[in-house]
Amino acid sequence: MKEILKSKFVKEMCSVTANMYRLGWDERNGGNISYLLTEEEVAPYLDLDKVIRKIPIGFEAKELAGKIFIVTGTGKYFKNVESDPETNLGIVRIDQKGDTAELLWGYKDGGRFTSEFPAHMMSHVARLKADPNNRVVMHCHPTNLLAMNFVHELDDRSFTRSLWQMCTECIVVFPDGVGVLPWMLCGNNEIGEATAAKMKDYRVVVWGLHGVYGAGKDMDETFGLIETVEKAAEIYMLTSHLPRINTITDDNLVTIAEAFKVNYRKDFID
Ligand code: 2HA
Ligand code: ZN
């Protein structure tokens, strides 16, 4: 067996959590990531017949039966993942019934996956239907995006428009826009279902007054998506209290979207 700490997927989890921590997006135990792995990727590092223990999921994720994920642990700090991946991360396989996770590696201190596992798994189901190449779901608390939640109406169309207007390339990075949920209690199936419903149309879902979910085909794409949304929110927070003299117009938005041939939300343009 090859040494799992040297695998691409463990190294990616370490570097992305460290980056997110240093950007201030994941204070304390804030944030969580799940990353869909293929059997071929994992097999050189783990005996797939060896289940360490079984962890109930609390809902049925039949569509994900047999699928393997590397997931951040509940109560664990992004700050600490890089120095101790085996305690702060776990690799789980969803069993055939879809209601139990088989632990294949990690959560060394007896821990378990993030409390937001329902939102993650339900989002994977929704995104895989929209894009079979989707592999990553990422949740965090980016500072400016969260600040913007307190001063901007929480509505898909107007929130997306404000973000698009803040950086020329936003409409190219997230032409599908962002979905916005109202404040909801986190860590349960209900917010998971609401997130997944938005994920049918959006790769970015804002959890009102809490944070954001992003989804993508790999770590870079997903991180870059949230990074771009957060950058736009930062410009918004730096300028929204000042008189606006210049603006990116709807005509400008259409011009760039067409030049880059992205399938943007036409109904979000005035
Ligand atoms: O796991 O961010 O939403 C910590 C959180 C919960
Ligand atoms: Zn959170």
Which terms would index this structure?
270 residues; alpha+beta; L-fuculose-1-phosphate Aldolase; 11 helices; 38% helix; binds Dihydroxyacetone; binds zinc ion
In short:
The protein contains eleven helices and nine strands. It is α+β, with helices and mostly antiparallel strands.
Structure, described:
With 270 residues, the protein is an alpha+beta fold. It folds into 2 domains: 1-115, Class II aldolase/adducin N-terminal domain (L-fuculose-1-phosphate Aldolase, 3-Layer(aba) Sandwich), CATH 3.40.225.10; 132-270, Class II aldolase/adducin N-terminal domain (L-fuculose-1-phosphate Aldolase), CATH 3.40.225. It has 11 helices and 9 strands. The protein has helices at residues 8-22, 39-42, 78-81, 85-88, 117-130, 143-149, 156-164, 170-173, 189-199, 219-239, 250-259, and strands at 32-37, 53-56, 68-72, 89-94, 100-106, 136-140, 178-181, 204-207, 211-216. A 9-stranded mixed beta sheet has the order 2-5-4-3-1-6-9-8-7, with helices on both faces. Strand 7, helix 9 (189-199) and strand 8 form a beta-alpha-beta unit. The chain is elongated. The structure holds Dihydroxyacetone (2HA) and zinc ion. Dihydroxyacetone (2HA) binds next to loops. Zinc ion binds at residues 30, 139, 141, 186, 210-211.
Topology:
Blueprint: H1 8-22, E1 32-37, H2 39-42, E2 53-56, E3 68-72, H3 78-81, H4 85-88, E4 89-94, E5 100-106, H5 117-130, E6 136-140, H6 143-149, H7 156-164, H8 170-173, E7 178-181, H9 189-199, E8 204-207, E9 211-216, H10 219-239, H11 250-259
Parallel strand pairs: 7-8
Antiparallel strand pairs: 1-3, 1-6, 2-5, 3-4, 4-5, 6-9, 8-9
Helix pairs in contact: 5-9, 6-10
The chain binds Dihydroxyacetone and zinc ion (ZN).
